[in-house]
Amino acid sequence: MEPELQDAIRRVHLIVGNARTEGYHVVVGTGSTILFQAALYALSSSSAVVAQPMKVVCAAPYYSQYKEQVELLQSRLYEWGGDANTYDDEDKTAPFIEVVTSPNNPDGSLREATVANKTENGGKLIHDLAYYWPNYTPITRPEDHDIMLFTLTKCTGHAGSRIGWALVKDVAVAQKMTSFMQITTIGVSKDSQLRAARILQVVADDCESKAGAFGYGGDDADRTFFGECRKVMAGRWEKLREAVKGNDVFGLPKYPKRYCNFSGRYFQPAPAFGWLECKEGYDASALMKANNVLTRGGDTFGASNRYTRISMIGREEEFDRFLERISGIHCVNEDEDKEGEEGLVVIHDNNGNARRGNGNFLHEVK
Amino acid sequence: MEPELQDAIRRVHLIVGNARTEGYHVVVGTGSTILFQAALYALSSSSAVVAQPMKVVCAAPYYSQYKEQVELLQSRLYEWGGDANTYDDEDKTAPFIEVVTSPNNPDGSLREATVANKTENGGKLIHDLAYYWPNYTPITRPEDHDIMLFTLTKCTGHAGSRIGWALVKDVAVAQKMTSFMQITTIGVSKDSQLRAARILQVVADDCESKAGAFGYGGDDADRTFFGECRKVMAGRWEKLREAVKGNDVFGLPKYPKRYCNFSGRYFQPAPAFGWLECKEGYDASALMKANNVLTRGGDTFGASNRYTRISMIGREEEFDRFLERISGIHCVNEDEDKEGEEGLVVIHDNNGNARRGNGNFLHEVK
């Protein structure tokens, strides 16, 4: 790992106050995705592990890619265990891994481990803190979990550089994760590491120049890179809530205001994704698709298809077009429907075209 | 994948004449290492595959990392089958994968598939052609295998950018490999892709400006990037052979001269690694280590410890120091040895310190 990048990562965490780095080892990866796999390997391949593959669980709704990554190579080391809420290990002693995503993807909620605290041996934890930055959510405390994953993608938006990092407490786990990176990709692009280091240095310099290190609050913090991002996100959420308010089909989660130590303000989270809920009986992503909006449906997140995930971090013109499209959607009980199926509803899109849905599909009425 | 990179890759192959690209799909990866794993996944996860993990074999001596990569996650899709020369599938119908590395790492030999041609269904092939560039070996024909792996690391030396590519004939295999890259790393650093594209464009421009496309031969080709690299490599091999000639411990493989279509000359291969053979009864890497040279011993390549792999592509000063150190090694039958063990030999290093070896270890006599 490039020393400049390690220094920049530690410096940004210290300034933002979202994670402890003292006493932690930093492991760099080609994005945080592969570091998740490195962590699975590190936690499941130790000699203390029994013959059974370790179950990997996550409370639903969970990031759809975890399951895909866990199952990809049909490993004998670990296997997907599904929703942590319903996970039940009879003897409460089998080793397992719980992934805790906080703020959560897709629904933006702040999460604590569920299963890990219920069983005797506690299980192993991987905390995916990709979205725990003041652009999205109030920073209430520096987190200090065993394995914490972060990514440049969500911190500054430079997804194309494929740079993620893990803060790891245990040196043996960090070494195993590094060894996984070594074997699978030999290393992480130096070009990207150096660029990421420079980006994070600029972000850190910006924070310090606006308010001086550790002296944030109010207007000063609002003018930092994170503060400006937060304003954009908050503005989009306001527009989205406005668009949804006017219709009788969709609902959105409500987030309580919290005090953000970095910003010196109380504010509501403005997550990177909207977790849109539909009226009972609707397939939310099919409904969106019928209105020319591509989203990821609830079932891919281990949840009901009444939900779908919409991106809040696309380009401005995309977001505006999206708002336009969903604003026109509303629901009408069509009494005069010829087929007369129970519970059938007609959705009118912006152009006055009527569509209908009955939970699993949508088709043109006319 | 960035279109500039794809174009540059196809252009360089066309100019060098080492691989066909027409009708091939290009899959980019974070180095060719992960593309090897992507190929394993693509070949072993198709629905036609039986319940048994597919064996992955490679003729010894083989690149030590293949085994490590195959075994890392204890996949149910594939497993390491060892040396292709001794691989014996009784019913000759079980699907398997043979990795063909040509020129071979560690010993620089030109390779053809072995097992794949012996059995009924032929098996699946992955060709690792990382070293098939005119800096190392005569380019005798454009290769046209099903899956061919290349890497910037060995082509131009830019290992730190972590850019590799696969040329893949079958579209379904290419799609599966891309999907593997998508799931494990989401994508490949754009920073690195754009830099690699520029590097390959410069290399291609250089070749064309020296001799005009497809008009190579003799002096013109010698002044290209590849020609200059070849001169460095050939010079190092000459020095190495000189250093080894004077001592009675080591031997090196001999390579026949071949006509290189790119260079318009006959020349001997000058591989990126030297595959050093020791006198019977010696542990080659232990012997080198005792003389302060770190090498990778034969056993890690599925071969005897009489062999060890030395790098020919380090920095100039490192290479010179290495030559200095091995030049001083010679072997003496020490009749007056007090312990009088049979076959014992004393190795004198540069400083006149005597060391001895008996096949598995070396220790100070005095």
Automatic annotation (TrEMBL), chains A, B:
Presence of keyword Acetylation: no
Record's keyword annotation contains rRNA-binding: no
MF terms in GO: carbon-sulfur lyase activity; transaminase activity
GO terms under biological process: amino acid metabolic process
Pfam families noted in UniProt: Alliinase_C
Superkingdom: Eukaryota
Transmembrane segments: none
Keywords: Pyridoxal phosphate
InterPro entries hit by this protein: Alliinase_C, Ethylene_sulfur-biosynth, PyrdxlP-dep_Trfase, PyrdxlP-dep_Trfase_major, PyrdxlP-dep_Trfase_small
Residue ranges constituting the Alliinase C-terminal domain according to the UniProt record: 1-328
Subunit: Homodimer.
Family: Belongs to the alliinase family.
Protein name, UniProt field: Alliinase C-terminal domain-containing protein
Organism per entry: Linum tenue
